[in-house]
Batch of 3 targets.
Target 1
Amino acid sequence: MSTDLHFLTIAEAAGRIRAGTLSPVALTEAYLDRIAALDGTLHAYIRVLAPEALAEARQAEAEIAAGGWKGPLHGIPLGIKDIYNTAGIATTGHSALFRDHVPAEDATTVRLLRAAGAIVLGKLSTFEFAIGGPSFDLPWPPARNPWNLDRQPGGSSSGSGTAVAAGLCAGAMGSDTGGSIRYPAAWCGIAGHKPTYGLVSRKGVLPLAYSLDHAGPMCWTSEDCALMMQVLAAHDPADPASADVPVPDFAAALSGDLSGLRVGLVRHFYEKDAPSGAETIAALEQAVALLSSLGAKVADITIASRAAYTDLCMLIMEAEAFAIHERHLTATPELYGALARRWIMSGAMVPASAYINAQRLRAKLTAELVARMQDVDVLLMPTWGEPASEFGEAASLRLDVAFTMPFNVTGSPALSVCSGFSSDGLPLSMQIVGRHFEDATVLKVGDAFEKAAGLRDHRPAVPLARAA
Amino acid sequence: MTTQSLQERLDAVGQRLTEADQKPFAEMVADVDRIVTWLSGADLSYADEPATCFAAPRS
């Protein structure tokens, strides 16, 4: 357990707050001090809401003192990706186009978090409109990776990954259309959970691609993701994709017992389809041995090729994104950065028949995966086949070793956890994928692995000035 | 694909390219075209209906 307030997990902080040994005001002040000291270097935040956060903290403190503890998020300071609507607070999408966009209402998820007593510390940086890459032609600079300031944090939920890893918030909201929760989680060494499609509302989140967008939590641990999921998972009639399904007790599922759990290792993804780095594979093999020692039964499994899923995801994403942005791209293309503009505009080149056929093939591949997963409880593979890239051209996103898009296509729950560290100190990643609406199983595996692996005590040491 | 033919395709959908966009955008469009070609040969029957945008897997 960390002695620094800013490095407490949500579970640790919640326990102290409930016991009356930690003040939400003191915790909020600790994060605000940390942000003041480091965010000029890290650029995780677009907007820090210091007075508002302190007022919310004082309110939480008074409620708890009066016996009104609402649950584990009460008095916990969180960061919100700046594509989530926040009432009366600009929601920019990290774009000049939406610089002055001030929503009247909170996104459903923000409303749920506030109702649970969480404190909103500020709005976090992102790839512009959650697509493209780290850009230097936008009104705000891109976030930096706290493990190495010359490396990218991943994205599009860049600020969320950076802020959680660096102790600039206790947890954060991300969004994931092709990997945008799990990719920065992988490169920043944190836990990021993309829920089953339909389990968490997207109402009030700036859309990128309707049929692929997912909202979800990013935290230091899988346990913390489970605590946030308990609040976030709820049927929302205002989101047409929202599923009306029972919500499990996510925290109660974190038993640490993996006896009899059947794990399908998707070896062809990282050995044949998109060969991964040796250190990523070595860390995965160690994780497999650890999971086996905890009682899991691991065997290789074959699913459709990574390329088939990834190509479908790209085409659908670009087509849907263009449909959303066509009007603004036509009228004011200069208000977009170059990366987002190119990515979104490429969707104009997708014939309607190709889009429909992509959705037809998607349904077929999803049904195939559902059938294959009758034999296993979870799938295992790297999240990203290499650790964080240096800043540079868009190619340095390393989409060639991305394993995230298949599960946006299928809507499966998918969790990225830190599986180890490279020889130069960068986080390595592992992805755990479950059956639809079995998010609790995925989080249980991530939690059991993290507690057995002992990797969660290692935090980045962020220098106060950026390396030359 | 030539820059001219790319611009013609963009004109058809009312979009403009900057000078700096042209080379990277042409590469992205080449990838879109590759996927479109692949999809045209996908193993799909009349019974294969599309996934819908607004249906959760079990809703």
Target 2
Amino acid sequence: MDQAMFARFRKCAVEVLSVSEDQVVPEAKFGDDLDADSLDLVELVMALEEEFGVEVPEEDLEGIETVGQAYDLVVGKL
Amino acid sequence: MGRRRARRRACVSRVVLITGGSRGIGLACAQRFRALGDRVAVTYNSTSPPDGFLGVACDVTSGESVDAAFAFVEAEFGPVEVLVSNAGITKDGLLLRMSENDFASVIDANLTAAYRVAKRATHGMLRARAGRIIFMSSVVGLLGSAGQANYAASKAGLVGLARSLARELGSRSITVNVVAPGPVATDMTAALGDKRLAELTAAVPLARMACADEIAGVVTFLASADAAYITGAVIPVDGGLGMGH
């Protein structure tokens, strides 16, 4: 995992989800660990799209539960 | 100008955007909000608004135009805190004489446009964890109106739109409500002609048309702190015309 890239990802997550940096680890689950609801996730995806200049279609979000999965998804679009 | 804006922002002055705000009900809303000290931007299509408002030419049937209008308002005032989706058109005719284009264009301008502006406004409201969205419907949305199948359908659609958004956005303290006016003295109703207007008024228990300011008062109420716990509501302001639905 590229640390600089992950730092950018983490910055978005911290801002949008109002969590602390050390909570944003690859194994963290959005629902259980970060207390994020579906609207939070939509907002996070929009922030990530802006940060990384990618587009993440709705259907790709199916089954994304953890920070690591979301990171891989976004970085995979670069 | 910059300093005055900064000072006003320190008070409870909100950023209000009204579509179709250069005349009729929209203009009356704009005047009310301005009297409350809010910073008011109005979009217009054909008639530019009077002095004192930030006018933005906008075609609400174009997502790009809506986006550009919001970007302009955000640059001038900051994120939109109160959205009044008011712009609307009519293309009346009996069903058998109503072309598909007449139907679709009214839905596009009255209903899909409300989706466009609400979606665009929601970006900033979610971030702010606050916001007020008000859709201008009509008594005919639920009453029906011979010769206005397209218009009535578009106005009824706003209720489903508003109530869905009320559920989606409620956890972020964003309220979404609908105002359903009866006959109001505006350019739109003047086009109906005296005979039709007399018929309309005869059916109203209060036996007169509303003035636009009477609608605007309810809109500013829905945007006020007193209305913080009202969402997904359809408020009739129709002189009693729609009683029972």
Target 3
Amino acid sequence: MIFESLSSKLQATFKRLRGKGKLTEKDVSAALREVRLALLEADVNFKVVKDFVSKVKERALGSDVLASLTPGQMVIKIVNEELTKLMGEKAAKLNQASQPPTVIMMVGLQGAGKTTSAAKLANLLKKKHHTPLLVAADIYRPAAIKQLQVLGEQLAVPVFQMGQQDPVQTVRAALEHAKKTQHDYVIIDTAGRLHVDEELMDELARMESAVQPQEILLVVDAMTGQDAVNVAQSFKDRLGLTGVVLTKLDGDTRGGAALSVRAVTGAPIKFAATGEKIDAFETFHPDRMASRILGMGDVLSLIEKAEATFDEEKARELEQKMRSQQFTLEDFLEQMQQLKKMGPLNQLMEMMPGMGGMGKKLKGMNVDEKQFARTEAIIKSMTKKERLNPAIINSSRRKRIAAGSGTSVQDVNSLLKQFSTMQKMIKQLSKLEKGKFKGRGKFPFM
Amino acid sequence: MGLFNRLKAGLQKTRSNLLGRLGELFSRSQFDDDFYDELEEILIGADVGVETTLEVVEKLRTQVKAAKVTEAAQVMEILKKQLLELLGNERKPIELAAEKPTVILVLGVNGVGKTTTIGKLASLFQAQGKKVMLAAGDTFRAAAIEQLEIWASRSKSELVKHQQGADPSAVLFDGVNAAMARGCDILLCDTAGRLHNKTNLMEELKKVLRVIGKALPGAPHEILLVLDATTGQNALAQARVFNEVAPLTGVVLTKLDGTAKGGIVIAVARELKVPVKYIGVGEGIEDLQPFDPAAYVDGLLAQE
């Protein structure tokens, strides 16, 4: 599939080099200039970029270009591997207390998303049958305690608070309370603060020594720019950071801050917040972030998501049908429902390589969830016979279907037209790819 | 602390962080490739962005060569002039509409400081003797309404609110009507934080604009985008998309009291010609100041 800008730039740089067996210094330097710019555009701190590029250069010099790759791809491969190494190779888990409760402190700048992340983490733990307690220790921002309370209520997770009292007292009391009431996790939402604010940084340090948390998670906005290194460094200097939560990853930022923070703190990124909904919070996969920073899309995530939701059995059936060209409206409906299970469509689109940066160009083919529902309604208003053989749908049937689905005859017409185009496409596809259809059969829409 | 001092204190960190390297850089006698490479790094390090930086440095290089400049101070002057050209030389305060109320819509992604900015703006206008009303258009985030309520009482402004989960357009529609009825000079409209790549939320914003315009033709008179100085290159994408949906009249750059430099506003001004109107330099209710481009550039490049 199409690699985005960096890849295409690299390919252009290497056009004249096709067929080379080894990477020379000159080739590598030219390529790494592009890599450097790409990383800087992705907001990776310039110092981190410098170190990184020199590391890659060392490794790339004299490397054999693998038979299956072009020199450009070879450099990308090395860059990607090194990035992954820097990001941490595996997803990291939460530290556990030897005796419950496990105490988790959320810290960070204002507006990074601490309160929301604390609630999302509580939700995640609750789903795994734990009994988390949320602690409101942000006594500065107006209504911050209230915000946590509202979220706690939504999740049915209790929220401990002592008003605007000294937060050190609050967390100490919260820990006692958790022990008594048998909560196995205590999640502390602290106030947002500037890393240069001595007084408030000191407050955090006092909280740390008061409750001895197993985890201190630095919450970082994925859109943070060059300053991410300063922020991370200051928090690391004052506290025993154990991990990072990367928020607002559902935006279209490349998220280079992840790399900067990781390089400075050495702490693993443990969670990623990916949406406004309370369950949009997941374990962080470092390897995938590497491709995102480079603008290569998050193919892995997409594939995994698809695999998890797509019923193997049904997929095979569908593939069979498509190959034998018996793809009906019934199957179309089923496929749509499967797709919907995978999550919001625009999120899926963004995960595909080449799509992420194409936000603007994509506007024309705006994925409208409502349109989806309309299509579903239209198909559901057809009889079984009509679904299997759309050719019989004459104008009076069209009128009935439109009335039944609350749409217009034009809507029905355009769906039928779409479907027949799709059928034609499938016919052509299966003719074209008869031999090698197997691997791709699962994604007729890709 | 006086206004000027607060600005200075706010930008101090900007300054001290840049000062060391820049001072060293400009004490060189030669303006060679190394000089320009390093200048590039400094600007990129301030989040000015690769494209804008490369353009600025390239232009500086040509101008320095053409004018045969050899003095560091002169090179600095040329650089400042260039940055100011991009940023716009003048201060651009908020202009009140001919007939009251002046409706100001405040937009931005999540967590940039929209509600706080509104609170500070309210007290700024209040201090000028204006009658101010706030409209709680963030009906999505938990306790956002309560947060605005606290700011309303701190700044002694009036407040129009609905329940959490209500239609923001309806809240702001009521806000405009109430502001007219009660003879307010200024209506500040809060909105929920929205990432610019969420189509549905941007559609919601279009509706908000339509509805405000219906309640009072010509409104909103000002559409301010709040940008977080710690944000990197994504701020440009934010400005682009928001500007497309709701033609921006100004930018508010918040959180300048940290170590972030907010250089991305230079890229934003360069591309979209939207002026920065205010900067946020602290948590206090008075910590919002009119943006002074020359002082900002000085702060960015100060050499004491």
